[in-house]
Amino acid sequence: MTLTSFGPANLIKRSPETHPLTWRLRDDAEPVWLDEYQAKNGYAAARKAFADMAQDDIVQTVKDAGLKGRGGAGFPTGVKWGLMPKDESINIRYLLCNADEMEPNTWKDRMLMEQLPHLLIEGMLISARALKTYRGYIFLRGEYTTAAKHLNRAVAEAKAAGLLGKNILGSGFDFELFVHTGAGRYICGEETALINSLEGRRANPRSKPPFPAAVGVWGKPTCVNNVETLCNVPAIIADGVDWYKSLAREGSEDMGTKLMGFSGKVKNPGLWELPFGVTARELFEDYAGGMRDGYTLKAWQPGGAGTGFLLPEHLDAQMYAGGIGKVGTRMGTGLAMAVDNTVNMVSLLRNMEQFFARESCGFCTPCRDGLPWSVKLLMALENGEGRQGDIETLLGLVGFLGPGKTFCAHAPGAVEPLGSAIKYFRSEFEAGIAPTSAAVPPLARPIVVGA
């Protein structure tokens, strides 16, 4: 699969009117540098924002457009911007781009940064103007070396053209932008862990309140947005609220378009910009082409490893937060994974929980001890050495590590696929219980952490 696999040609006809994120992409997948980007109307939205719009009007426009975060949580962007202090005397503020794309099965931000680096820079420039931030950082996953190279070149191009730095577009507004590569921790996707890492601290989430809008990087007001979120801003400013809202399908409560994808043993794995409200069946059958010959669809996840499993009968759900919520899980990043009929769910979950256990920051007890415990139990079930009561213990852990039970959302996301897998495929877990095993009370099996 390539990052420019945008589906069958007869289905994908990208234009500025329908594909605000991807219409500038080149067919050869090479980066769109400054001259070409400006020839394709690049930075026109930034010029409009600087020349014709008050800073508060930019915030209100994004709020009215209904733009929501594209990193997985889906918090309204304009509302988040509105939390930044109004006090003009606070002259040190920061804008952070969360580009630590470490969610398994997710690669959408990588494509934007590698092929359209100036779209992200323009989005950050407009956002910085709106939020009165004088400095920005793109916190980039360390493994994204190509993205780092392309972003650094694009930042240099923009600065040389007077689009970054001092007195941007003659407005008197200053904005410096830096690319910061992280050391590689999944937990840095949580905004306050990202802030700690940027400051050179251990990547642990912070207690909230205070929220970053009040006390963020180096104690100053800070706004953190995802790559895809920021890349939506130029089109909203350039073409307006009504147009942006019109992009979504009828019935969707989320506005605009979304980068969606399908991986696994499908015929055409890839990434596509589609309107919110498209059905998962369209995504799976029309764009991904269905399963490869010889395979059938057993289950699927709608948006990364931290979302629950769904069944083939759930494919008619609309791809937006509320649509996926109706069938029992979260949309997450919108990049789905197909699980084929050859996959054992116990082995798949053991692999997933092993990843999540290793990526825990270890700050709170439920996550630090509970996730390794789930791995121990799953390994036993995978090897046919499970004991009576193990499945109930796993379900108990799903409850103990659920929303509101841990310091951040890492553990709830980690156990969501586990709970759904047991719900739909319990017989596969039961098959791992040794026939002569003695019953063990739920949550009574000992564990040696790190063993």
TrEMBL record:
Reaction catalysed by this chain?
Answer: a quinone + NADH + 5 H(+)(in) = a quinol + NAD(+) + 4 H(+)(out)
Domain named NADH-ubiquinone oxidoreductase 51kDa subunit iron-sulphur binding: residues: 346-391
Query: What UniProt keywords are attached to this protein's entry?
Result: 4Fe-4S, Flavoprotein, FMN, Iron, Iron-sulfur, Metal-binding, NAD, Quinone, Translocase
Gene3D superfamilies in the record: 3.10.20.600, 6.10.250.1450, NADH-ubiquinone oxidoreductase 51kDa subunit, NADH-ubiquinone oxidoreductase 51kDa subunit, iron-sulphur binding domain
Q: InterPro entries, from UniProt?
A: NADH-UbQ_OxRdtase_51kDa_CS, NADH-UbQ_OxRdtase_suF, Nuo51_FMN-bd, Nuo51_FMN-bd_sf, Nuop51_4Fe4S-bd, Nuop51_4Fe4S-bd_sf
What EC number is given for this enzyme?
A: 7.1.1.-
Which Pfam families does this one have?
Answer: Complex1_51K, NADH_4Fe-4S
- Tell me the cofactors it needs: FMN; [4Fe-4S] cluster
Going by the record, the broad EC class of this enzyme is: translocase
Superkingdom classification of source: Bacteria
GO MF terms held by the record: 4 iron, 4 sulfur cluster binding; FMN binding; metal ion binding; NAD binding; NADH dehydrogenase (ubiquinone) activity; quinone binding
**Quaternary structure (record):** Composed of 13 different subunits. Subunits NuoCD, E, F, and G constitute the peripheral sector of the complex.
Please give the family membership noted in the entry: Belongs to the complex I 51 kDa subunit family.
Q: Name the NCBIfam families for this protein.
A: nuoF_fam (TIGR01959), PRK11278.1 (NF008436), PRK13596.1 (NF010120)
Q: What does this protein do?
A: NDH-1 shuttles electrons from NADH, via FMN and iron-sulfur (Fe-S) centers, to quinones in the respiratory chain.
What's the name of the protein? NADH-quinone oxidoreductase subunit F
Species classification:
Bacteria, Pseudomonadati, Pseudomonadota, Gammaproteobacteria, Pseudomonadales
